[in-house]
Design goal:
This protein has about 300 residues and is α+β, with helices and mostly antiparallel strands. The chain has ten helices and 14 strands.
């Protein structure tokens, strides 16, 4: 049995016509018909009922179709993975990335990618603003959180876990909250993003979800500034783990309620919908995914 005959069988079923497939492959109808007949002979079963108006699957054809489609998809994926490898990575790419990832990882990673490909130029904007990928002419955007735009293609890079942290000096002065509910009695600096302030902090304890309304004297739209406030001992903050990972290791900050905080957001590489992304974009996405995965422990506590 030949794998290309299985692929042809899947194509015939999906097109619903021998002639359409023959036209796509630039062969005659008889060639397609003979190859399907050969497949049926090899298997010893009939796969298709043929009439002058339509094709329909037999029971055996229905059972075979799923596997034939898998083979077709795997073959296409294999071709796509190497398509364009002879192309030179050159020209200009416009990127929009959030400030935290840009400052901590992406700027250096993109610089390494550019060194590997001297003919490439990258115009990178570090901004937490929710950009319009198509209207603003970006080739690639790094986004965190839920993706709703079906006109965009997304590639998952890593899961970003958030945590509540505070400096030892704050705890020494104001005491340690023993339960999430006690946070309402403390000064919490709040992260203000996209016009909304996150003053409901979510938790899970004993299998039940709940939230605590917190408040504080300051609201900021910059994660690094919130980190500095925490380090100064002025407030409790709620931030992505990656932003304070090294501070936690050094003992400059302490994590509160580990395992109870309920906020994890996916980080994605997003680009406009096309049948197949340009080779240089595919290469950059794969390179960035490798960089994120190497520092996965910075982003979440799951090993």
């Amino acid at each position: 049995m030949r794998a290309d005959d299985l692929i042809l069988f899947a194509q015939v079923v999906d097109c619903g016509s021998f002639s359409l497939v023959a036209e796509q492959l630039n062969v005659t109808n008889s060639v397609v018909s003979k190859r399907i007949s050969r497949l049926e002979q090899d298997l010893g079963v009939q796969l298709l009922y043929r009439t002058t108006r339509k094709l329909s699957l037999t029971e055996a054809g229905t059972m075979l179709l799923t596997q034939a489609r898998h083979i077709h998809a795997a073959t296409q994926e294999a071709f796509d993975s190497v398509a364009g490898m002879g192309e030179q990575i050159s020209g200009t790419l416009r990127l929009s990335v959030p400030t935290i990832s840009g400052e901590l990882l992406l700027a250096e990673a993109v610089a390494k990618f550019c060194r590997m490909h001297p003919q490439l130029r990258v115009d990178m904007s570090l901004d937490n603003r929710f950009v319009d990928v198509v209207a603003e002419g970006f080739d690639l955007v790094i986004r965190t959180g839920q993706l709703n735009d079906s006109s965009l293609i997304a590639r998952h890079l890593v899961e970003s876990e958030w945590l509540i942290c505070v400096s030892p000096s704050y705890l020494a002065q104001f005491g340690t909250p023993n339960a999430p509910e006690e946070l309402s009695q403390h000064n919490c600096a709040l992260y203000h993003q996209s016009g909304a302030t996150a003053d409901d902090w979510h938790f899970r304890r004993d299998g039940k979800d709940f939230s605590v309304k917190v408040s504080g004297q300051m609201r900021l739209d910059n994660g690094q500034a919130l980190r500095r406030i925490a380090l100064s001992g002025e407030a409790i903050v709620f931030l992505p783990r990656v932003l304070v990972y090294e501070d936690l290791l050094a003992g400059k900050l302490v994590e509160l309620f580990p395992g109870q905080v309920q906020k994890t957001l996916g980080i994605y590489a997003v680009y406009p919908f096309t049948r197949k992304a340009p080779y240089k974009i595919r290469c950059l996405i794969e390179f960035l995914r490798e960089q994120y995965q190497r520092k996965r422990s910075y982003f979440n506590s799951q090993r």
